[in-house]
């Protein structure tokens, strides 16, 4: 160890050459460039690196240490200065010391572009995706739609029982009812199937590819063919409007875009879930209102009133308003639907959709399970 | 502390004399960190989360550069932009995979109801791959004494191990967890390098099992008496950390830790306390906001919350959203201060480094890894250390 190095060692200057982890104590000399020299045993100080001042950049360091790198040196070469006055002197010479750091302007740029990205994503979610869903849904080829429907049907049957109800007389009545509605709705002949599922849940739904299912629970609660017909007409409305495919494209698109925004493509975190629920519920309410409109038209075309269907719904759900935060509801409130269909109530001008006998056999379509 | 001993090393000495273990110091300023995460959280809010790449980078830069091993501070050289690019590339790869997943799922469902559920496992595999690759990214950005850490090994090989062990853990109701962790850690550490030094992991599953089996046995109790759960979890984490640190080897260097098993009680309860406080404030705020809207608009509470008069419920919705974000922001800051910074410091101050002399002249090697792994981890919402 030379005497000079020992004299400096209270606040040593350390150099790492970026090739090895050797910790070298060095002395600095100012010239055209910063001369980094290692004290030698016999031949005196030996210059091991020359850093032009313009190449020197600040690296992260704990308080009290100035750590430097140089663009012209190996990327991991570091010079650590612990002496405050030496550090201040060097900082004054290095004009481009902090050039690479994120500045206030850099942050402003990040904020600006993020906001722009967010605004465009929100606009696409609000306007672009619904438009794309409306335009694309009718263009989805029938076989694709049917495949998706088949997959959904298998799932539904796994949950609600293996097969549809098969009572012959009941089935004939159900087919007659569905066919009358289908003809009035103007749906393609080959694109539709319908069935009754043996489960006590009072509900009905449409699947992609023209599948309509009524659950036995709903059938049990219905008092007249018109009640059931209105509900079926509503489901046919969903088919006519391609609501399933629209919903699929819409939900897929929004959850992807909202996930993109918050950085989780699978869309599992709470913020995404919440914002998605609100956006999708409003879209779904729109689709339900559309299907109601369609049901009203069909029932009028058949010369029957749409009101009984709403009464059936009201009987099942009861009054819904005031039960929590309804901005998340996927359907319009039942009482509002009832009010709307009551407004559309007209005295019957067409023949009954089913005879009493047919209605009784339809109610017994699932055999012994009825009330 | 031993600048003098290590200053001018000439030719490598034949046998370095045995030295007392070295400590790891943390010199970071807590209020500085709080300021950093508060500012970062606000920027994250106004950028709809996009600032997270830069915030995560700033947090790591702070933690790394204030961690001193044998008197020399580490350095993190990753940058936010790299993470952003990694995220975008990950998106480009994940989107077609999601579509394929959707289509294959439909075919499976046609064949048998819910047959596509196992497909979800493929995302778990992808998540494990992401964890491995994200670790590689972080490690190659970690510099100490002018030499970087780096990693080889295959993310998919790691993922396969994680999956098989995961299955075993599932089948044994969690009892196999120590062996899973030991095996995975061994894989990770044996493919970890500091310059030309190779890492290893000497912890074994049996040791970990002996330290924590009673927690496994007591875990049903915590489900019933849930205030006990944080204690149990803190015990588990402390034991896990200590076992993990004790097992780490890099070249001839080994670590040991005397982390007490009750080390994290305070941290977890502080987080829970803050969380309860914030929830209470949020509830009160919501109540107040509803009352205010009702008073000002003259509508009933039902109308204010209803769906059909959307124009009337907008002020309420806006207030809810603002309140929600404020709470999310505060919780974010608290988690980062307590569970990242304070936990980091608490663990670091218990570490002893043995035979640090083995790192006196390590030759640098290893290439930088891309941030794609971090992007996947971000896109799939998985995290690992």
TrEMBL record, chain B:
This is DUF898 domain-containing protein. Keywords: Membrane, Transmembrane, Transmembrane helix. Pfam families: DUF898. It comes from Bradyrhizobium hipponense. Residues 1-20 are annotated as: Disordered. Residues 9-20 have a biased composition (Pro residues). The lineage of its organism: Bacteria, Pseudomonadati, Pseudomonadota, Alphaproteobacteria, Hyphomicrobiales. The chain crosses the membrane at residues 83-104, 116-134, 155-179, 213-234, 272-294, 314-339.
């Amino acid at each position: 160890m030379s005497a000079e190095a020992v004299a400096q060692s209270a606040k040593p200057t350390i150099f790492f050459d970026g090739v090895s982890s050797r910790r070298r104590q060095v002395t600095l000399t100012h010239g055209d460039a910063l001369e980094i020299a290692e004290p030698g045993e016999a031949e005196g100080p030996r210059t091991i690196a020359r850093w032009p001042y313009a190449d020197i950049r600040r690296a992260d360091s704990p308080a009290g240490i100035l750590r430097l790198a140089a663009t012209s040196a190996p990327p991991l070469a570091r010079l650590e200065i612990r002496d405050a006055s030496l550090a201040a002197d060097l900082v004054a010479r290095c004009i481009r010391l902090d050039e690479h750091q994120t500045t206030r302007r850099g942050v402003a740029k990040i904020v600006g572009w993020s906001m722009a990205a967010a605004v465009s994503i929100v606009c696409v979610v609000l306007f672009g995706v619904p438009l794309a869903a409306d335009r694309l849904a009718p263009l989805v080829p029938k076989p694709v739609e049917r495949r998706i429907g088949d997959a959904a049907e298998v799932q539904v049957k796994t949950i609600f029982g293996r097969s549809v109800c098969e009572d012959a007389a009941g089935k004939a009545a159900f087919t007659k009812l569905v066919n009358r509605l289908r003809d009035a709705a103007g749906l393609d002949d080959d694109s539709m199937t319908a069935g009754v599922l043996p489960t006590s849940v009072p509900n009905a739904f449409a699947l992609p590819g023209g599948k309509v299912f009524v659950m036995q629970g709903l059938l049990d609660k219905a008092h007249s063919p018109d009640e059931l017909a209105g509900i079926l007409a509503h489901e046919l409305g969903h088919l006519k409007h391609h609501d399933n495919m629209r919903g699929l494209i819409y939900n897929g698109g929004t959850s992807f875009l909202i996930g993109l925004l918050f950085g989780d493509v699978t869309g599992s975190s709470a913020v995404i879930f919440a914002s998605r629920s609100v956006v999708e519920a409003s879209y779904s309410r729109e689709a339900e209102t559309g299907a109601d409109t369609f049901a009203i038209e069909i029932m009028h075309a058949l010369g029957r009133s749409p009101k009984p269907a709403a009464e059936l719904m009201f009987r099942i759900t009861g009054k819904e308003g005031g039960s929590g935060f309804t901005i998340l509801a996927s359907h319009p409130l039942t009482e509002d639907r009832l009010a709307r269909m009551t407004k559309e109530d007209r005295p019957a001008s067409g023949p009954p959709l089913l005879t009493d006998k047919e209605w009784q056999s339809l109610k017994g379509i699932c055999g012994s399970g009825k009330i | 502390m031993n600048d003098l001993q290590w200053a001018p090393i000439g030719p490598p000495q034949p046998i370095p004399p045995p030295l007392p273990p070295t400590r790891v110091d943390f010199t970071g300023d807590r209020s500085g960190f709080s300021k950093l995460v508060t500012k970062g959280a606000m920027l994250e809010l106004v950028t709809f989360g996009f600032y997270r790449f830069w915030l995560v980078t700033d947090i790591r830069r702070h933690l790394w550069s204030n961690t001193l091993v044998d008197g020399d501070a580490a350095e993190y050289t990753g940058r936010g932009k790299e993470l952003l690019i990694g995220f975008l590339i990950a998106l480009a790869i994940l989107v077609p995979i999601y579509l394929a997943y959707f289509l294959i799922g439909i075919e499976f469902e046609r064949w048998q109801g819910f047959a596509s559920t196992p497909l979800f496992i493929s995302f778990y595999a992808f998540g494990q791959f992401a964890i491995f690759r994200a670790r590689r990214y972080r490690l190659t950005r970690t510099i100490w004494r002018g030499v970087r850490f780096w990693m080889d090994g295959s993310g998919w090989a790691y993922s396969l191990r994680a999956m098989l062990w995961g299955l075993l853990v599932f089948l044994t109701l969690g009892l196999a967890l120590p062996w899973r962790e030991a095996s995975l850690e061994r894989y990770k550490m044996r493919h970890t390098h500091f310059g030309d030094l190779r890492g290893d992991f000497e912890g074994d599953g049996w040791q970990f099992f002996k330290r924590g089996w009673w927690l496994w046995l007591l875990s049903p109790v915590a489900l019933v008496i849930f205030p006990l759960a944080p204690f149990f979890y803190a015990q588990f984490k402390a034991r896990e950390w200590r076992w993990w640190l004790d097992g780490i080897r890099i070249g001839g260097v080994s670590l040991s830790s005397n982390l007490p098993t009750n080390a994290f009680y305070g941290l977890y309860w502080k987080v829970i306390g803050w969380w309860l406080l914030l929830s209470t404030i949020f509830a009160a705020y919501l109540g107040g906001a509803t009352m205010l809207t009702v008073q000002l608009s003259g509508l009933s509470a039902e109308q204010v919350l209803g769906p059909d008069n959307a124009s009337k419920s907008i002020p309420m919705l806006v207030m809810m959203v603002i309140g929600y974000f404020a709470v999310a922001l505060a919780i974010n800051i608290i988690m980062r201060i307590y569970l990242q910074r304070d936990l980091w410091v608490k663990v670091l101050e218990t570490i002893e480094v043995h035979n640090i002399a083995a790192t006196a002249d390590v030759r640098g090697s290893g290439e930088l890894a891309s941030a794609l792994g971090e992007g996947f981890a971000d896109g799939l919402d998985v995290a690992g250390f």
